[in-house]
Structures are given as structure tokens and as C-alpha cells.
């Protein structure tokens, strides 16, 4: 189906997500928390929610491309992700997420669809926003605007102020998928080979969660209330069992830029930044 530029600005159907403390703890385990992170993994330790959990209730809504085009899910790539935190995320509850298609750009071989979601609690209080950049391969060359390009959130030319390495488990993707992203690319070796990989890869949003934990530890004293926003570009893949090293630079009060890489030296997150409270 051709790209429908009339979809820009269109609000799509709201998605409701009900979750419990078990879901919050399972997500934390899925992004690498363990016995050193009991405030995120054990309900008897004044359980708190990782800020990057914001992607979970809104995940189905983020990929609501039906208003813009009819696309084969196998041709969809997650390019960028941003969260903005507006209130503490409850440890359980029902969250309603409404997606809006903010832009559609022509990238030649693909269309880039920018979807923004707003998630509210049962009282209508805004908890967080997500902005996702989603590439639909094969849907480009429709004569639209190319959109913004060029580098952003570029680290300064000096050694990182903070660097945190986190080793992922061989079964990390199998754990993370239980939080909702059941794409077989992350579990089935035969399906991964169809996608061009010799084995299943880690979810990009799992890598996002690991890097978010690094920022939380380095600049927020592991207090989720201090993280205000976090954004990344997915620029490479992680294979379960590899180590994710997040390098961070503070470029202004409350403003951090970062990159993440594996031991292969490949950048897996770039153009990344976080805003934190003092």
C-alpha cells in the first residue's frame, strides 16, 4: 500500500496495558538486573520501576503503522527511541497509550515513520511519552521530504567521564521477550538466519534498557525519579552473551551524551543522550 501522507498528525487507536509487580521485576531481569539491584527485582525492598520500562506498556502502540501504510512486519526496523518521564511509574496498574503519527520521511530505500505516544494512568495523569523512529524497508521513493539528517549528541573529543560494562546472559533475549516483544528473530536460530544473522540477536530495546541502567547508576544514584529523558539511535546489534559497554560524557549540568558498544568494537547505540535532575 502506498504511503499515505494524510496520516501525519493522525491519532490512532488507544492501547490499554495492565501490569503487576511481577511484570516490573521480569522487565528488570530482562535488561540485566540481578542480586545487586534488589530495589528493581524484589518486592520486599520498596520496589521501584526502571525508567526504561516506559517502552513496555506503549510497545504495541509504538508500532501502529496501520494509519500510514500496510507493511510487512519482517520489513520493519526500529531506528530510534526516546522516552520522556513526567511522573513516577507505578509498580502496578493500568496504562492507556495513544499513538500519533508525527512525520513520515522518504529515505530512498525506506520510509521513516515517526510515532509519538502518550501514556496516562487511570486518572488521566501523563506518566511518559515515547517517540519511535521506525523504518519500513521498501516503502521509500514516494517523493516525500527526506527529513532531518546529520550527527547529533556527538561525544566530546576526550575520554568518557564514566564507563560502565554490563555482560549480558546467553539467554538474555529469551528473558526480555517475555515482557512482550515475541519477535522470533530474538529466539529462533533459523528465523535469525533468514534475517541475515548467524544466531538470534538481542532486542534493541533490551540494549536500550542496559544503557539506561548505566546512566541511572552513574548519574542518578539509581534513583528513577532523577531521569527525565533518554534517547538513542540503534546503530548495531548485540548478540546475547556479549558485554555492553556504555561510555558517558557530561556536557552540561544534567545533560549526558553517550555511546554503547560491544567487545567487537561495534557501536550499538549512537546519537544518544539523557537528561537527569541534579
Order of helices and strands: EHHHEEEEEHHHEEEE
Distance N to C terminus: 48 Å
Return the structural class.
Answer: alpha+beta
Q: Mean of the pLDDT scores?
A: 93
Shape: globular
β-strand percent reads: 25-35%
List keywords for this structure.
278 residues; alpha+beta; ten-stranded antiparallel sheet; 6 helices; 10 strands; 33% strand; globular
Brief sketch in words of this structure:
By secondary structure, this protein is an alpha+beta fold.
Structure description:
By secondary structure, the protein is an alpha+beta fold. It contains six helices and ten strands. The protein has helices at about 20-30, 40, 60, 170-175, 190-195, 205-220; strands spanning about 15-20, 75-85, 95-105, 110-120, 125-135, 160-165, 225-235, 245-250, 255-260, 265-275. The protein has a ten-stranded antiparallel β-sheet. Strand 9 and strand 10 form a beta hairpin. The chain starts with 14 loop residues before the first strand and ends with a strand.
Write the layout of secondary structure elements.
Blueprint: E1 15-19, H1 21-30, H2 38-41, H3 59-62, E2 76-85, E3 93-106, E4 110-120, E5 126-137, E6 162-167, H4 172-176, H5 189-194, H6 204-219, E7 227-234, E8 243-252, E9 255-261, E10 267-276
Antiparallel strand pairs: 1-3, 2-5, 2-7, 3-4, 4-5, 6-8, 7-10, 8-9, 9-10
Amino acid at each position: 500500500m502506498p504511503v499515505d501522507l494524510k496520516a501525519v498528525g493522525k491519532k490512532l487507536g488507544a492501547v490499554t496495558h495492565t501490569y503487576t509487580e511481577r511484570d516490573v521485576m521480569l522487565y528488570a531481569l530482562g535488561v540485566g538486573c540481578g542480586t545487586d539491584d534488589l530495589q528493581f527485582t524484589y518486592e520486599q525492598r520498596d520496589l521501584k520501576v526502571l525508567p526504561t520500562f516506559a517502552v513496555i506498556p506503549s510497545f504495541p502502540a509504538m508500532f501502529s503503522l496501520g494509519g500510514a501504510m500496510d507493511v510487512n512486519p519482517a520489513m520493519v526496523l526500529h531506528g530510534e527511541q526516546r522516552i520522556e518521564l513526567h511522573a513516577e511509574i507505578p509498580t502496578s496498574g493500568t496504562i492507556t497509550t495513544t499513538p500519533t503519527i508525527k512525520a513520515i520521511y522518504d529515505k530512498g530505500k525506506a520510509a521513516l515513520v515517526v510515532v509519538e505516544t502518550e501514556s496516562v494512568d487511570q486518572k488521566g495523569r501523563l506518566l511518559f511519552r515515547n517517540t519511535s523512529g521506525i523504518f519500513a524497508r521498501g516503502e521509500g521513493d514516494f517523493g516525500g521530504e527526506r527529513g532531518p539528517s546529520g550527527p547529533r549528541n556527538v561525544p566530546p573529543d576526550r575520554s568518557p567521564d564514566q564507563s560502565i560494562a554490563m555482560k549480558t546472559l546467553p539467554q538474555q533475549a529469551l528473558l526480555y521477550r517475555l515482557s512482550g516483544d515475541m519477535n522470533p528473530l530474538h529466539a529462533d536460530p533459523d528465523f535469525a538466519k533468514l534475517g541475515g544473522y548467524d544466531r538470534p540477536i538481542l532486542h534493541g530495546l533490551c540494549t536500550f534498557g542496559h544503557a539506561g541502567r548505566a546512566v541511572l547508576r552513574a548519574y542518578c544514584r539509581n534513583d528513577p525519579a532523577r531521569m527525565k529523558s533518554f534517547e538513542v539511535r540503534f546503530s548495531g546489534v548485540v548478540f546475547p552473551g556479549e558485554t555492553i559497554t556504555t561510555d558517558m560524557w557530561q556536557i552540561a549540568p544534567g545533560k549526558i551524551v553517550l555511546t554503547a558498544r560491544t567487545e567487537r568494537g561495534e557501536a550499538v547505540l549512537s546519537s544518544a543522550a539523557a537528561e537527569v535532575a541534579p
